[in-house]
């Protein structure tokens, strides 16, 4: 067995000038590489750029690559959802208002705005829209227990309403299996009373108990 010992050359500390020179060379090489990659990427993207130009669409600016106008009809997209991101003061609200104006003037779409800060009140008034004020002191209220034959998206509106009421109660507090059963029976009995007996009274949390007492003598 032969052992070969290689004498290591001691590392020399680089001077400040040498460090600066090597750093500049590395930065230059990195910038040249990125410029080359960007040129190739833009060349490929220009051949395969996808423009959106829907008939009767509304304008969403210009394509940054091709420069063509972007006309979008959300109904023709696979998914019409979107959101607007940006820093404070970058124009998020202005972009949303521009889209609302285009939709109102150029389409038959119904626009529903949830505006807790009352930022869109002047726009709604200018477009002759309808304002529905919901607050503890307003005349308008949402009745969570209201139901009709067209309620929900399924075939059974009663089942959809029961699931909604259960989820609403679970948001307020924890609901036990026994309580879920009681809520389910109350919702179904109340709807049966309204439809079979023909009551036109509105059911709310305030009068639900009185309805329950009347149903005792009505239900088979």
Approximate helicity band? 40-55%
Residue-averaged pLDDT, rounded? Answer: 76
**Rg over CA atoms:** 33 Å
Q: Based on CA inertia axes, which overall geometry fits?
A: elongated
Describe this structure in words.
The chain is mainly α and 220 residues long. Among the domains are: 90-141, no CATH class; 157-215. The protein is 45% helix and 4% strand. It has helices spanning 16-47, 92-106, 121-126, 157-172, 177-197, 208-215, and strands at 58-62, 69-72. The chain has a two-stranded antiparallel sheet with strand order 1-2. Helix 4 packs across helix 5 (177-197) and helix 5 crosses helix 6 (208-215). The N and C termini lie far apart (103 Å).
Name the features:
220 residues; mainly alpha; two-stranded antiparallel ribbon; disordered C terminus
Write the layout of secondary structure elements.
Elements lengths: L15 H32 L10 E5 L6 E4 L19 H15 L14 H6 L30 H16 L4 H21 L10 H8 L5
Antiparallel strand pairs: 1-2
Helix pairs in contact: 4-5, 5-6
Q: What's this entry about, in short?
A:
With 220 residues, the protein is mainly alpha-helical. The chain is 45% helix and 4% strand.
């Amino acid at each position: 067995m032969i052992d070969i010992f290689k004498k290591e050359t001691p590392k020399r500390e680089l001077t400040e000038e040498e460090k600066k020179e090597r750093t500049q060379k590395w930065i230059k090489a990195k910038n040249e590489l990125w410029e080359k990659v960007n040129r190739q990427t833009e060349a490929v993207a220009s051949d395969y750029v996808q423009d959106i130009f829907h008939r009767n669409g509304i304008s969403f600016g210009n394509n940054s690559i091709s420069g063509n106008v972007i006309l979008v009809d959300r109904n023709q997209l696979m998914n019409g959802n979107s959101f607007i991101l940006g820093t404070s003061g970058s124009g998020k609200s202005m972009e949303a208002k521009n889209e609302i104006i285009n939709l109102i003037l150029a389409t038959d779409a119904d626009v529903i705005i949830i505006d807790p800060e009352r930022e869109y009140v002047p726009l709604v008034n200018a477009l002759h829209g309808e304002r529905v004020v919901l607050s503890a002191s307003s005349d308008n209220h949402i009745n969570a227990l209201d139901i009709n034959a067209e309620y929900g998206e399924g075939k059974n509106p009663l089942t959809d309403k029961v699931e909604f009421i259960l989820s609403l109660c679970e948001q307020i507090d924890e609901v036990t299996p026994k309580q879920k059963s009681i809520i389910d029976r109350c919702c179904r009995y109340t709807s049966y009373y309204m439809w079979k007996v023909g009551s036109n009274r509105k059911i709310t949390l305030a009068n639900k108990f009185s309805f329950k007492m009347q149903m005792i003598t009505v239900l088979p």
